[in-house]
Structure formats: C-alpha cells, structure tokens
Amino acid sequence: MPARAGLRAKFAREIDPDGTLDPAEVERGVEQLLRAHMMRMSLKAKATRRQSREPVAAAEAGGPDAA
User: Alpha carbon of 14 to those of 7, 17, 20, 26, 41: distances in Å?
Assistant: First the structure.
C-alpha cells in the first residue's frame, strides 16, 4: 500500500536521518514506531467510539441530557 510505504519511509528518516545505521537496525526501529503509531490510532478510535455512544446511553437511561 502506498500510504503504508510512505509512513515506513517517514519513520526510517526519523530513525536514521543521516543514513548511517545498519538497515536491519533501521527496520527494527521502523517496526517499533509503526506498532506504536497503530496502537495510538486504535486507542484514539476506541475513545471516539465511546464518546459517540455516551449521548445515546444517557438518553436511553433518561439522564439529564434526555429530551
């Protein structure tokens, strides 16, 4: 996927801006950064889904936001 390749290239530049590290070491760092990035995105999506459900749950329970 082009987007994933671009993200990997960005991470590789962050890890080794001078191009002096061993390629295997750069790849390990890229994998770690990619995993961390995906985890942050997953947690953010989960929080967004939770927030979008809260008004519905309050309305169903007859909470103060219920109309």
Answer: 11, 6, 12, 10, 19
Number of H helices, E strands in the chain: 2, 0
pTM for this prediction: 0.71
Tokens 């994933």 sit on residue: 4
Question: Distance between CA 38 and CA 31 in Å, rounded?
Answer: 11
Asked if residue 25 lies in contact with residue 14, where contact means CB atoms within 8 angstroms, the answer is no
The count of C-alpha atoms lying within 13 angstroms of the C-alpha of 9, restricted to the half-sphere facing its C-beta, is 6
Distance CA 30, CA 67 (A): 50
Mean pLDDT of 21-41: 97
Q: pLDDT over 90 for what percent of the chain?
A: 70
